[in-house]
Design a protein that fits this description.
There is one protein chain. It contains seven helices and seven strands, in the order βαβαβαβαβαβααβ. The protein has about 240 residues and is α/β, with parallel strands linked by helices. The chain binds nicotinamide-adenine-dinucleotide. The site of nicotinamide-adenine-dinucleotide has 27 residues, from helix 1.
Length: about 240
């Protein structure tokens, strides 16, 4: 059975991805900065699931997660680099320095440290980075987030090229707004949702399940010739 490492697994998309792999019988290494919901999820998912609390912006944590996979389950087959944050909406000229640095540290460097730790530990395998539609085009008021996610796309394509002959596939999923805490799940009103989905041809948010589906497709070992891709789950935005 596959050994799967997922960051940001305690909530939102990461939790959905963890549940989907658990349903397939995978052995799970789950990470998150938020201990309580992470432990609760692991307790629910059962024995083939280990956790480690930490911050993906720390390269030592990226290594420790991989070591945990190797020590407990004998290797690493699939990694989903999902943990991410967004800064408060602001034009580029107004984004505070601390917000900018933190988003780059978590969303961009977090994926770099993850790749550095994961690639040497894999023989064959699949890495899926959760980017965003903001990694493929500009995102007014989310400038640093967009820069970080463009960076994730650059890392994804480069890692795919560097590892194509080693049997390690590296792809990115690029969702538009999905129904999680990051997209303001708690404060959703019809008006807020209409505003967020104005630029999306389907005029709605993605469900967690719809994004999870794309991750499972990319992770599937049968999907063996697909690497370096950015898979939009975006209600048609990428077609515009
Ligand atoms: N929800 C959306 O609309 C949307 C759209 C496009 C892309 N994404 C991307 O999807 C990924 C998941 O987002 P989500 O919507 O599930 O968010 P979320 O806020 O619901 O969940 C993110 C999880 O990551 C954890 N986390 C945050 N910072 C961390 C850190 N430094 N180290 C370890 N764990 C950390 C959080 O504790 C949380 O459990 C992110 O990379 C995000 O940028 C989300």
């Amino acid at each position: 059975m596959s050994v799967v490492l997922i960051t940001g697994a305690a909530a939102g998309l990461g939790e959905g991805i963890a549940r989907a792999f658990a349903a397939q019988g995978a052995k799970l290494v789950l990470g998150d900065i938020n201990a309580k919901p992470l432990e609760a999820l692991a307790a629910e998912l059962g024995a083939d699931c280990v956790t480690m609390v930490g911050d993906v912006s720390d390269p030592r944590y990226a290594k420790a997660l991989v070591e945990l996979a190797v020590d407990r389950f004998g290797g690493l087959d699939i990694a989903v680099n999902n943990a991410g944050i967004v800064h408060d909406p602001a034009f580029i000229s107004d984004i505070p320095e601390a917000d900018a640095r933190r988003v780059i540290e978590v969303d961009l460097l977090g994926v770099l440290w993850a790749l550095q730790a994961q690639i040497p530990a894999m023989k064959n395998g699949s890495i899926i980075n959760i980017a965003s539609v903001a990694g493929l085009s500009g995102a007014p008021t989310l400038g640093v987030y967009a820069a970080a996610k463009h960076g994730v796309v650059g890392l994804t394509r480069t890692a795919a090229l560097e590892n194509a002959r080693r049997g390690i596939r590296v792809n990115a999923v690029c969702p538009s707004f999905a129904r999680t805490a990051m997209a303001g799940e708690a404060r959703h009103s019809k008006a807020h949702e209409a505003e967020m989905t104005r630029g999306i041809p389907m005029r709605r948010l993605a469900s967690v399940a719809e994004v999870v589906r794309a991750v499972m497709f990319l992770a599937d070992p049968a999907n063996s010739f697909m690497t370096g891709q950015t898979l939009g789950v975006d209600g048609g935005m990428g077609a515009m």
